[in-house]
Amino acid sequence: MPVGNLDLPLMHPVKGVRIGIAEAAIRYKNRRDLAVLEIIHGATVSAVFTQNSYCAAPVLLCRQHLTKATPRYLVINTGNANAGTGSVGMENAQASCAALAKLTQVAAEQVLPFSTGVIGEHLPVDRLVAGLPVALAALNENAWADAASAIMTTDTRPKGASETFEVAGQRYTVTGISKGAGMIRPNMATMLGYVATDVAMAQSVLDALLKSAVNQSFNRITIDGDTSTNDSCVLIATGTAGNAEITRAAGELFEKLEAAVHRVFARLAQLIVRDGEGATKFMTVQVEEGESTDECCDVAYSIAHSPLVKTAFFASDPNWGRIVAAIGNAGLRQLDVSRVRVYLDTVCIVESGGRAPAYTEEQGSAVMKQDEILIRVCLGRGQARDTVYTCDFSYDYVKINADYRS
Amino acid sequence: MPVGNLDLPLMHPVKGVRIGIAEAAIRYKNRRDLAVLEIIHGATVSAVFTQNSYCAAPVLLCRQHLTKATPRYLVINTGNANAGTGSVGMENAQASCAALAKLTQVAAEQVLPFSTGVIGEHLPVDRLVAGLPVALAALNENAWADAASAIMTTDTRPKGASETFEVAGQRYTVTGISKGAGMIRPNMATMLGYVATDVAMAQSVLDALLKSAVNQSFNRITIDGDTSTNDSCVLIATGTAGNAEITRAAGELFEKLEAAVHRVFARLAQLIVRDGEGATKFMTVQVEEGESTDECCDVAYSIAHSPLVKTAFFASDPNWGRIVAAIGNAGLRQLDVSRVRVYLDTVCIVESGGRAPAYTEEQGSAVMKQDEILIRVCLGRGQARDTVYTCDFSYDYVKINADYRS
After folding, report:
1. For residue A136, which of A14, A15, A24 has the smallest C-alpha distance?
2. Which of A65, A282, A378, B52 gives the lowest tally of CB atoms within 10 Å of its CB?
3. Which CATH class is domain B282-403?
């Protein structure tokens, strides 16, 4: 059961991006499992990928292609991750790009491939290639919602976010989609995320914007602590809005764009947690008063990854002992636990190394009954802060992951 | 359901150690929840404790007392961890030691306190103290099995190991007990472990022996990756066997003793995994051909902590994609995945970056049907190796941890 409202908003088209969908029977028949995304000539494109050593063939090939050319097409399949597939996997990824390049009259290096689904099985490249003409014939600017559905795996809901804003009477758009529900602890990117804007931007500005947005969104969520082999995130600036190209991170347009991109990324990342496998609760773990953002993240992830914390939240049990054990388990040097305070929403539950004197179980239980809970930790030793988003750990997480692929 | 045979063996007494049990109603009535362990004057005692920053009051007090005196008594309660209890917790631990010291005419510093159970509630020190005379009256050399029961929390079975060996016609004994089933990723020690031998040994030799034994046993197991606030492990050498004190780590007696201690520790640690909360499978994760034991451990723990790997093993699904994703997720620099091989028992499932050509799902499924499975990873880049023990992740893990304390 997803937590909160995951409905797709109105997905504003981004001029310069067209999307086509097909049913290619990659893993199952009669489902949309192939998406082609066309990017207008002259756009800038930035991308980040998983840090997993066993990264998938398409991730390796994306990295190669990005050093050689600006992408004109993305080809995305679900149902098969093309990961753990050795040299055959690379050949299949190359074949997919070559086939799309031939159909669209671009160089193979101008195609980026993305795959998601089961690991360790060979991509049915013939079926994928057979689906490409269908997808190309369907290309249009209003297929973002369809694309959000076509890239799902164990996701129960398509995930999208879209905003427009105005600067000096000109309207600009930021629209994106994401997918992912398990094997989620992105490191540099999420399972799959694609965001486009019509703002014209220089490559260096776009790269920096993608990095900052990812670091506050996809790099701050975890469902099970497992970093995927296929995490990929792409930010496209088509430049079709007609503004003078942004060449530095300043000015009203950049600032409004930055805010919109950060909000869209944050929403796309949090949607993944809200739809986390078996999730019944959405937890925001906010750690403040640290010596560095790194140590704030260490504490936040120690809490967010603790199976004991996650099962306690599933049970709506304000078992703060497990939270303090997880804080103590984060490896911080010389942490003075007598200075640490822990809050559930606004209720102080821990201070001076133990239960807060005014805290009652009734207060804790009232907070725990909610679907969305803030765990706030004040470390009492600095000014840094950071926030991680996660979900609880339920019977259904085990069920989904014990049944999947069997 | 524990995995394998967890029956207590014949628990050989260790001359110089007497144990007494009582029902102190620490948390529940009519259960044995208090143990006093008496150590003969002249023994040497070594201990290691959790590295969790939120370590419990008894752990803090044990560390203080060990700097001041050689212990004569251990007082151990279950039902309450006296952790996350601030200054009141420390006063309660001190009061327990003082009461036992008074009854036994030793200094308070000669008593070490240990607590296990729920975190964050105050120790009912009056009830604990009231139980001490009962425990003292019961002191005897043959209560190791009773003690194993008296220190249980969510354990379903008491845990013990015992060996004797002979050197030059003299018989020596090593006997120990442990407890723990959840919040298990010991770091320097386990939840609670107590081992004694009658061999006479100098403090420095005993300290080194404890450290090496713990590093190959309690420091190599994980159930849920959560390091407890109360991990403590004690090794006692009573010296009652009459040998000339061992002052260096050499000679036949030391070597036989070292082997016996390592076996007893390994058994006590693995018993904890076999009785892991909800465990249905016992998994040995053996990583070889690493550049260092540290990186072997990193890979082994990345596999052993992955909820996706653990749920796949629960489902008896040879989902090796999750294993390679976990290997890739261990943070090793410059890992050449084309050199990595992965085996389930003796079946090679992964090589050259993908599924081994000769591997069939039938082979994998046959291994996965077993209760005890070896996951062997060869990194192909060095001579180092290390091994970690863990269990799978089942519905019952969630059930136990969602229901406990609620």
Report:
1. A24
2. A378
3. alpha beta
